[in-house]
Amino acid sequence: MGQRSRATTIADVAAHAGVSQASVSRVLNGRASVDPEIVQRVQASIAELGYRPSPTARSLVNGRNNTVAMVVPDLENPLFQGILKGLSLAAARDGYRVLVADTAENVDDEEAIALEARLRCDALVLCAPRMPEAELRALVEAVAPVVVVNRLLPGVEVPVVGVDYVRGIRDLVDHLHALGHRRIAYVGGPPTSASNAERRRGLAEALTARPDVRIDELPAGSRLEDGYAASGAVLDAHRDGCTAVIAFNDLVALGLMTRLHELGVEVPRDLSIAGFDDVPMAGFATPSLTSMSVPRGEIGAQTWLRLHALIEGGPVEHSVLHRPRLEARDSTAAIGVRA
Amino acid sequence: MGQRSRATTIADVAAHAGVSQASVSRVLNGRASVDPEIVQRVQASIAELGYRPSPTARSLVNGRNNTVAMVVPDLENPLFQGILKGLSLAAARDGYRVLVADTAENVDDEEAIALEARLRCDALVLCAPRMPEAELRALVEAVAPVVVVNRLLPGVEVPVVGVDYVRGIRDLVDHLHALGHRRIAYVGGPPTSASNAERRRGLAEALTARPDVRIDELPAGSRLEDGYAASGAVLDAHRDGCTAVIAFNDLVALGLMTRLHELGVEVPRDLSIAGFDDVPMAGFATPSLTSMSVPRGEIGAQTWLRLHALIEGGPVEHSVLHRPRLEARDSTAAIGVRA
DNA sequence: TTGCTTTGGGAAACCGCTTTCTTGTCGCTA
DNA sequence: TAGCGACAAGAAAGCGGTTTCCCAAAGCAA
């Protein structure tokens, strides 16, 4: 690419070394047995001319890029960042690069962006796609090889890597239950979020397993502001008997705690609060926030593993859901005297 | 790319429409005057066959990719994430995609990664490169067109987009000075960080401008843990007369505040604390954290502006340093009774 | 020595486009 | 009616590699 003045090509090298292009190519790719003397000459010429093969030309003939694209709804989401980092590092080890495509939460653009990205890459990672399930099924069909992250897609021949939110939430409810809590408020995430739906399924399962628990659902969102704004509803629930809160994620939990602190509600004495994701800040909140830890980088690495296998046509490792790990900290405590 | 079974090519379209490849290409690119009837036929064939031109083949002949790479020391750094997001959205508007290359803070790999990335792209963004200045100068020469972010490079023909840390720190010192603080502790960042050096220059300038101020430098780092761990040194400085702290960034400030809270030091009554970067959490800390706000997305957008101009060979907008905006919050207050 | 199989390496085809070059057709003027 | 210029569209030449195909030389057995 680019406007460097006439980069040296394989033809230049061939001429300089007095051999054919084919031989240079063979040397370059370590093909067949080439006369050691020719290898020498070619390598010398390459070094002298500072020759670097054009990846584009190679792509054209090889039909592959050594590039994959990650399509993501919002690059600023810490979860996706961690996944991107893990993916990009793992891919780099295999000589692949990662292209990012931010759909800016624009559901209608998702498909077009994915298709376009696929044209430039050997494979795709669809990160938490927002589109309706039917469309998604058609899309993954069209853009294979592809790995879907953080969105379940039952009965489809596509590896899915994600978080077992159902299990995570159940574990979290168990934790609170063990602390004596029976009335729990769930401060929910964006209504369109698939992972929010998973969390709610977890709540439903937990209810079935523990009939003595009651859960109040309060709508909120996914950001600090949303948690902050949900404080009113939470306090209502509290007055109504809730002793613990599960927030959609840590940001919501932190925002909520901030507001509760302002209002003089003491956590965990008056109210236990738990988040999800275990963002770095969770351990540094006051009080430190109980959360479910999600291995972000690991998810990225696992994603690459599957994508790579798919690209190489090797055996496809199957889907995997990472079970979040409970990080019990100070924001949840045994139920005690109520304010 | 990819293993789809023999994608349709321009030749297929030409055959199907009964015209030459050249005509199809002309239709595709809106070139010259083509018989409207042929345009019709070609477009019909394209639609019917579901033809999409190969970006790779186009790249080969056009000598460009419509892709740029962003080389970054650590994708998990919130600052770089914001820049990446801004860059990628702005570039997308012009039909460009962004490739990410994480050097994992590995200084020795930076050059190789940058050169390799440049081979696949039309241009490069070097984000806070860690390498020594001499090498960097040689590198930017080699990989042009390039824009450097968050690292000053005086006297070089390369656009630099960044943050005016010097000015930001001076403004912050002014803020504290206005509140009556004269003894300030600076909890510094990583020794190799160029932006840390800039901040220190800001401190030096502030001292010159305000001879009545004294600043104690304490080494720390860039993360929550580093701030947490720096509490001992900060308390020493406090006992020694410091009434305010400027932290390398918000994470350090937040980590420090967490520890101080644990130790019963009250902010801002006993000690004023200010951070830098204005991460989302800053406004939600307890007390809310005074910080210098940096327009992350805007930096990304500005970077694209320059890169695009460079690629197109248009007039190069020159370097720009964004002056951080003071977000005065509750963690800094007028000097008062000391604990 | 002859004849056959290896084997190394060059010529050329090809990947899927864009663009130049060339040809053929049409319309116009003399 | 012949002749010239415009112009639309096809043929073909790249872009920079890889790979097939083929030939010449070498190695070996008979």
Please give a structural write-up:
The structure is a homodimer. Chain A is of the alpha/beta class and about 350 residues long. The first copy, chain A, has 3 domains: about 10-60, 434 Repressor (Amino-terminal Domain) (Orthogonal Bundle); about 65-165 and about 295-325, Response regulator (Rossmann fold, 3-Layer(aba) Sandwich); about 165-295, 3-Layer(aba) Sandwich (Rossmann fold), CATH 3.40.50. Chain A is built from 13 helices and 12 strands. In chain A, the strands form 3 sheets. In chain A, strands 2-1-3-4-5-11 form a 6-stranded parallel sheet, sandwiched between helices. A 4-stranded parallel sheet of chain A has the order 7-6-8-9, sandwiched between helices. In chain A, helix 7 (about 135-145) links the parallel strand 3 and strand 4 (about 145-150). The longest helix of chain A is centred in the last third of the chain and has 17 residues, at about 295-310. Chain A starts with 9 loop residues before the first helix and ends in a 12-residue tail after the last strand. The model of chain A has no long low-confidence stretch (mean pLDDT about 90). Chains A and B meet through helix 4, helix 5, strand 2, helix 6 and helix 12 of A and helix 4, helix 5, strand 2, helix 6 and helix 12 of B.
